[in-house]
Amino acid sequence: MTAGEGRRSVAGWLHQVSRRMLWSVVVLIPFAIAACAQLRHGWAPAGENAQAYLRWLAFWEHPPTLGAVSRLGSGGMTASHPGPATWWMGYPVYWAAGGGPTGVVMAVVALGALWAVVTVRLLAPFKATPNLEIPAILAPLGMVFLVLLARTLGPTALTEPWNPWFGVFSFAVAIVATWRVLCGAPQALVFVVLAASYSLQAHLSYLPMVAVLGIVSLGSCWLQAREDRWVIARPVMWSVGVGAALWVLPVIEQFRSSRGNASVLLGAFRSPTEAPVGLGPALRTVVSAWAPSTSFVHGMPTVTAGRSMSVGAAVVLVGWIATIVLGWRHREIPAIGALMRMHLLLGLLTGAAVVAISRTLGEVFAYLVPWLGVVVALAWATSLATLILLQSGRIPTASQLAQQRPGIAALVDSPASRPLGVLFLAGALLLLTAPRLSSVTLGDSPAERTVDEALPVLTKLLDPTDPLLIEWVDPVGFGGVGYGTLAGLERSQFRAFANERYSAATMPHRVRSLANVERVLWIVSGPQQQSWDQLVESGQAERLVVIDPRSDSQRRQFEHLHELLRMRLVEIERDGGPPTLLEALDQNLWSLRSDPRLTRAEIAQVDELASLGVPTAFYLTNNTVEAPQPT
After folding, report:
1. Disulfide: which of 103, 130, 234, 495 matches 94 by Cβ 3.0-4.6 Å?
2. Which has more pLDDT, 302 or 259?
3. What's the mean pLDDT when you consider all of the chain?
4. What whole-number distance in Å separates Cα of residue 56 and Cα of residue 62?
5. What residues contact 25, with CB distance under 8 A and at least 6 apart?
């Protein structure tokens, strides 16, 4: 074979590859980059990442029936998020990857990648009704903005087993599937139920948005059933079956468990301990998500409610509204009519977001609104598709392609859509996303570094046959090292257990009382180690290891911030009010940052203090030794 024949053969093979398959492959780029970077590094889960790890560690012995632990609670009980879909769908990948932290990362990446691919496939062109036609240009644009969304979210959101991230790309599927139902494809109702349930079970913050999608989908199906009820009969039956399968375990837990997770959640909303943020902060939060710097560079800030409305966000919103108005004037064009339905759906979700966020209790953290990025990304893709179709009559719709070239109705007849053009686009996206997504974030927190250093020492000093209760005193990481140590010891076949107050986080089967163990491993972070060292001197405790995850510069920075905050808190307490702030500085930073007497600048200093970490000491005692009182 000559060189020319070889080139023609390769080109011929490339032209035989489905464009839709190529779009699906390209959308995997950010997930592949993030996974490869993280797997080369390795990590020891801590905090809520370790809690997710615990669900998969004992999956078959104690199948999970609920989602991750929530910050909500009532009646002295802590609630969990609604359901276990993530654990069940991710377990096959976790198992196939060999379990452990590597299996956790692979499960998270695989689930996110799966939902992203399904989103692109659902954006594929099709002839919905005589008056509605899905344009072929939307799939590649949707793919591009999903990749940009993944880049903006960063490697943490693609690899970390933290439940707010689980529902991001499944929510994209839910939106696109709802749109297809609106366009006359009731078969997509199954995807609405599957993806919306998955997102909601991952994190309760998706509830209002999922409710909107459910109402719109069911309303559309009802209207279609008035014309021909048999058209929607099969999709509805399949959807009911899928929904029942996804929610059967939470329903069983509600009626068989003494706590009833749904009852605990309802109790938290009926008796809130914090006031809603209100309409003004909610509006600023939603508008700020449209700023180009938020959409494509930095992402949402940790705390969003205090942001002002930027000029960039206002310009983008006005541009989106103008695009909708312009497209509405040409809605008789089948492709434009279909895009208008997407625009209206996204507009409805944006309005619902303002209402939902306004009812959020306490501060609006970025992890409570990850779905905003999905709405914005799809709005960008839909707007560009609308403008392209309005400005260029050369881009055909799916039916025009079918008439011109039977069998390739799913393709876009433009150079950029040909396989070599797709590969060129893939290379460009690779160059754009690789620098940000190849950075390693898992394993870099103080808690994870502490667990990583401590576990080899603990596994040598502790007896794996002795039941061991793990307790902790943690003013900074909120038990992060404790959960990571529990998961690491269980992975190493130790009989490690937790206190009953952590049953929602660790699952009830890991709960033991002091009477059922002989040894207690106390994990003490921060200044309380001085009291514990006195127990060591008296022979009541044994200090196993002390880990300080900070560098010299970080220690100096911590001491500087700590002193600044201490002096400021002394001034605040001198001005009046209960003297609780100084105690919280050394005992509970979460309580401190929630105090209304602190300014936003001071809250930022508290957050920075927590991010630097503190030394952690591990003490071994018998079950009769009481923890010393905080000093």
Report:
1. 103
2. 259
3. 83
4. 9
5. 426
What lies within 8 Å, CB to CB, of 180 at 6+ separation is: 122, 128, 134, 187, 188, 191
Lowest mean pLDDT among 29-33, 162-166, 307-311: 307-311
pLDDT in tens, 398-445: 455 444 433 333 333 443 445 556 666 777 777 778 888 888 777 788
Q: Cite the DSSP H helix spans in 163-310.
A: 163-166, 168-182, 189-202, 207-227, 229-256, 261-270, 279-288, 292-293
Tokens representing 428 are: 């460009």
- Cα-Cα-Cα-Cα torsion 143, 148, 151, 156, nearest 10 degrees, comes to -60
* Distance of alpha carbon 15 from alpha carbon 516, whole angstroms: 68
Would you state the pLDDT for residue 428?
79
Distance CA 602, CA 590 (A): 13
CA 49 from chain centre, in angstroms, equals: 12
Q: How far is CA 347 from CA 350, 354, 383, 397, 489, in A?
A: 5, 11, 12, 25, 49
The 8-class DSSP code of residue 303 comes to B
State the virtual CA torsion across 292, 297, 303, 309 in degrees, nearest 10: -20
Q: How far apart are CA 106 and CA 85, in angstroms?
A: 16
What is the rounded CA–CA span in Å between residue 329 and residue 468? Answer: 70
Chain position carrying tokens 């909708």: 324
Residue type, 598: L
In this model, does residue 261 exceed pLDDT 70? yes
Q: Could you tell me which residues are beta bridge partners of residue 617?
A: 524, 546
Answer whether 336's CB lies under 8 Å from 391's CB: no
What is the per-residue pLDDT for 175? 96
Helical axes 419-437 vs 19-26, angle rounded to 10°: 10
Cα–Cα distance, 176 to 189 (Å, whole number): 10
How far apart CA 211 and CA 188 sit, in angstroms, is 17
Query: How do 77-80 and 127-129 pair as beta strands?
Result: unpaired
Which residues, other chains included, contact 480 with Cβ-Cβ below 8 Å and sequence gap of 6+?
Answer: 46, 47, 48, 50, 445, 447, 448, 474
pLDDT value at 342 more than 50: yes
* Distance between first and last Cα of the chain: 83
Closest alpha carbon to 375 in 125, 146, 101:
146
Tell me the percentage of the chain whose pLDDT exceeds 90.
Answer: 35
176 CB-near residues (< 8 Å, 6+ apart): 119, 122, 123, 142, 378
pLDDT digits (tens, 9 = 90+) for 525-562: 888 888 888 888 888 899 999 999 989 999 999 999 88
β 468-473/519-525 pair status = parallel
Listed in sequence order, the residues at least 6 apart from 443 whose beta carbon sits closer than 8 Å to its beta carbon are 41, 42, 43, 44, 449, 452
Residues in the chain: 631
One-letter amino acid for residue 254 of the chain: Q
Q: In the structure encoding, which two tokens stand for residue 587, read together?
A: 């005992």
